[in-house]
């Protein structure tokens, strides 16, 4: 069972309203592209739309879920609904031939025929040309739904024949709820939902031991910076440099560090602010209390400069020593 209508509206309010208006005004097009990142609800909303188009008793532009057609769409057994996914790398021409053959067969069942192409950006040239012909001259009441995460990889000639529905990235509060429903702690969910807004990636990070260690190392460093430069340098040599060996890892570490200072600024402005590290709230409140906006702004600027130096392949030990001195400005040197 997919998500209910309320959940779909939370996920994609604009797309849901567009689809309901299209249906309400009897303006069904021959073809739609559902374009959005993984985890934005494309498949669930496609099922909703297919049901709505075939439902025997829709109510307020919502499928009834109980009629014969709704039940058959739900179980994947409706003879007028065909779904195609790539075989290997591509959607191949034989798959398209078979699909178009089925769509043209008379007497399958009265009513609209619907075909869905998953990963439509993976049509090879031959299958793309075949679908193009069918998009130009569909037989009778036919609706195509093309799902993609790579809109730019679909041929412009196909794009121009489809109505484009853009799926927005997952709102952070929705992602947080999904993560917590998957038994991820609120603290970890808050951090990973700042790193990505794709559910699968967020779940991967939240369950990754390396990421948990990276997070822990960054927060240890933030605490050490509040004490003195020697403590901070010790953490850099003993924990930071051994953990963040590769350029990409170092980049992630600096991003996590930047989020910590961003939290401190947010807390200074509003003690109830949503944070990347809610488990550090008491320390961050303390830091916010003793810092000026100007100083915090300079510290964030230093982290961004370190990130830029990393791109220029500056020596990582030197880069971190320099960063610790810059972040220490305004603190007492012991």
Derived structural class: alpha/beta
Runs in which pLDDT lies below 50 for 5 or more consecutive residues are 330-334
Question: What's the name of the CATH homologous superfamily of the largest domain?
Answer: P-loop containing nucleotide triphosphate hydrolases
Rg, rounded, reads 26 Å
Oligomer: single chain
What topology, given as strand order, has the largest sheet? 2-3-4-1-5
Q: Helical residue percent?
A: 55-70%
Protein name: DNA polymerase III subunit delta'
Organism: Lysinibacillus macroides
GO biological process, one term: DNA-templated DNA replication
Keywords: DNA replication, DNA-directed DNA polymerase, Nucleotidyltransferase, Transferase
Describe, in short, the structure shown.
This protein has 334 residues and is an alpha/beta fold.
Report on the structure:
- With 334 residues, the chain is α/β, with parallel strands linked by helices.
- The chain has two domains: 5-169, P-loop containing nucleotide triphosphate hydrolases (Rossmann fold); 208-328, Zinc Finger, Delta Prime, domain 3.
- 58% of the residues lie in helices and 7% in strands.
- The chain is built from 16 helices and five strands.
- The chain has a five-stranded parallel sheet with strand order 2-3-4-1-5, sandwiched between helices.
- Strand 2 (81-84), helix 5 (93-104) and strand 3 (113-117) form a beta-alpha-beta unit.
- The chain is elongated and about 80 Å long.
- Residues 330-334 have low confidence and may be disordered.
- Its EC number is 2.7.7.7.
- It holds the Pfam family DNA_pol3_delta2.
- Residues 241-328 form the DNA polymerase III delta subunit C-terminal domain.
- InterPro entries: DNA_pol_HolB, DNA_pol_III_delta_C, DNA_Rep/Repair_Clamp_Loader, P-loop_NTPase.
């Amino acid at each position: 069972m997919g998500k209910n209508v309320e959940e779909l509206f939370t996920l994609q309010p604009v797309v849901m309203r567009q689809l309901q208006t299209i249906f309400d005004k009897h303006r069904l097009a021959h073809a739609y592209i559902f374009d959005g990142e993984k985890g934005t609800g494309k498949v669930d909303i496609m099922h909703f739309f297919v049901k709505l188009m075939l439902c025997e008793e829709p109510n307020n532009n919502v499928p009834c879920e109980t009629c014969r057609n709704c039940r058959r769409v739900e179980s994947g057994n409706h003879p007028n609904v065909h779904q195609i996914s790539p075989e290997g790398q591509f959607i191949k021409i034989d798959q398209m031939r078979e699909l178009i053959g089925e769509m043209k067969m008379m007497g399958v069942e009265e009513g609209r025929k619907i075909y869905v192409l998953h990963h439509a950006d993976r049509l090879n040239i031959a299958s793309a040309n075949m679908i193009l012909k069918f998009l130009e001259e569909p037989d009778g009441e036919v609706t195509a739904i093309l799902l993609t995460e790579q809109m730019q990889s679909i041929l412009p000639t196909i794009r121009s024949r489809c109505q484009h529905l853009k799926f927005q990235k997952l709102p952070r509060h929705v992602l947080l709820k999904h993560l917590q429903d998957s038994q991820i702690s609120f603290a970890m969910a808050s951090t990973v939902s700042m790193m990505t807004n794709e559910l699968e990636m967020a779940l991967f990070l939240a369950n990754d031991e390396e990421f948990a260690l990276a997070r822990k190392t960054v927060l240890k460093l933030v605490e050490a910076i509040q004490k003195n430069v020697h403590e901070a340098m010790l953490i850099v040599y003993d924990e930071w440099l051994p953990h963040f060996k590769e350029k990409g890892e170092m980049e992630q570490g600096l991003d996590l560090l930047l989020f910590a200072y961003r939290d401190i600024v947010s807390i200074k402005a509003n003690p109830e602010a949503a944070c990347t590290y809610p488990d550090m709230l008491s320390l961050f409140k303390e830091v916010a209390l003793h810092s000026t906006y100007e100083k915090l702004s300079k510290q964030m600027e230093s982290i961004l400069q370190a990130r830029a130096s990393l791109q220029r392949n500056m020596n990582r030990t030197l880069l971190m020593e320099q960063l610790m001195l810059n972040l220490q400005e305004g603190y007492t040197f012991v």
